[in-house]
């Protein structure tokens, strides 16, 4: 998207503001590209294919989750626990179908700018790419001095831009983003969560 009237050119997300409607999927990425980006020399590719939207997925409609959350039987307002997670709308869950993984194709030798957006209602993710480091250059719409890490935690509503260099041998590399929940230790709904979270979100990147 190119728009000269927006105050900043960065990574954003949009979502419904009617009750908890966005939990049912009315949400997505909004990227405003900056032709004068101060980090432009650090990457070669920054387009729709490098936008990565992480999200939790409730199998129960939000209107029913609201009723459960505010019910007198909820015992202290414990948040509903997501049933699974997705990357760019794709994911798997225990007992569900073997849905194809989301996939990002890259070309060896190029530098990419994945824009990571957590559109979740509740969950946060620990994001990493097997065998590759992440160079953080933008956080929540604000440019930063580059910082290289092996992984990062991204909470609901947060956005990160990172640089990933496709400098490894041509192969498949796992992108991992296991989900965690804030306040899980005192949420009675999280009783079975730790045993399930490792299955929720794994994706393949091909070089």
Question: What labels would you give this structure?
Answer:
single chain, mainly beta, about 210 residues, Immunoglobulin-like, 7-stranded mixed beta sheet, globular, 6-stranded mixed beta sheet, about 5% helix
Give a brief description.
With 207 residues, the chain is mainly β. 4% of the residues lie in helices and 36% in strands.
Question: Can you offer a commentary on this structure?
Answer:
- A hairpin with a 2-residue loop joins strand 9 (134-139) and strand 10 (142-149).
- The protein is mainly beta.
- The model is unreliable at 191-204 (pLDDT under 50).
- The longest helix is centred in the N-terminal third of the chain and has 8 residues, at 62-69.
- Strands 3, 4, 6, 7, 9, 10 and 12 form a seven-stranded mixed β-sheet that branches.
- It has one helix at residues 62-69, and strands at residues 11-15, 27-31, 51-57, 84-87, 103-105, 111-112, 115-118, 123-129, 134-139, 142-149, 152-154, 159-165, 172-176, 179-181, 202-206.
- It is globular.
- 4% of the residues lie in helices and 36% in strands.
- It has one domain (11-206): Sandwich (Immunoglobulin-like), CATH 2.60.40.420.
């Amino acid at each position: 998207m190119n728009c000269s009237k927006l105050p900043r050119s960065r990574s954003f997300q949009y979502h419904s503001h009617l009750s908890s409607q966005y939990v049912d999927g009315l949400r997505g990425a909004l990227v405003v590209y900056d032709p004068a980006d101060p980090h432009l020399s650090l990457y070669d590719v920054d387009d729709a294919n490098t936008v990565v939207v992480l999200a939790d997925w409730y199998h129960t409609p939000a209107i029913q989750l609201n009723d459960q959350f505010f019910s007198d039987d909820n015992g202290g307002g414990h948040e509903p626990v997501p049933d699974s997670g997705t990357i760019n709308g794709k994911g798997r869950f225990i007992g569900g179908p073997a849905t194809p993984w989301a996939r990002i194709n890259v070309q060896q030798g190029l530098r990419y700018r994945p824009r990571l957006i957590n559109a979740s209602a509740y969950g946060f993710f620990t994001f990493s790419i097997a065998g590759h480091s992440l160079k953080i250059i933008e956080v929540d719409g604000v440019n930063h001095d580059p910082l290289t890490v092996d992984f990062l935690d991204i909470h609901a509503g947060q956005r990160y831009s990172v640089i990933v260099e496709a400098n490894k041998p041509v192969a498949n590399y796992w992108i991992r983003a296991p989900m965690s929940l804030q306040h899980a230790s005192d949420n009675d709904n999280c009783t079975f969560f730790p045993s399930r979270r490792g299955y929720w979100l794994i994706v393949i990147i091909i070089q």
